[in-house]
Amino acid sequence: MTTPMVFILFPGTAREALTFYEGVFGGELSLHTNGDFGTGGPPDAIAHGVLDGIVTLAGADAGRQEQSVQLEGLMLSLLGTAEPALLHDWFDQLADAGRIVDPLTPKPWGASDGQVIDRYGLHWLIGYEPAHHITNSAKEQAAP
């Protein structure tokens, strides 16, 4: 199944930001500069970068005629994408030098989730269902 990939135009911080996300999520990072591609703009600016792994992100440094990332009304969701301990670790790392909008805690509806805006302005929604709920759902799906 093909899914959309987030491609972020950073305000001259693409190398730093994508390296940060590699440190948080792991994966393989490839960075290509304007100089590598022979395109216009500062030769050291990132023309195309991709973090490929459990979380995949792509980005570049915004060119002169391009707007850099400004998010309103959009969250990158990592609901149920990893074990709870790992999701808490990601949340904490993204919150470092960022801003917690809503702590990653149990909610009245039974799930645990939270929101954080990281140091590069990306808004993340991270959470998971309780283990007994997942186990019961798996049992229900497996029942004849």
From TrEMBL:
Signal peptide: none annotated. InterPro entries: Glyas_Bleomycin-R_OHBP_Dase (IPR029068), Glyas_Fos-R_dOase_dom (IPR004360). Residues 9-124 form the Glyoxalase/fosfomycin resistance/dioxygenase domain. This is VOC family protein. It comes from Arthrobacter gengyunqii.
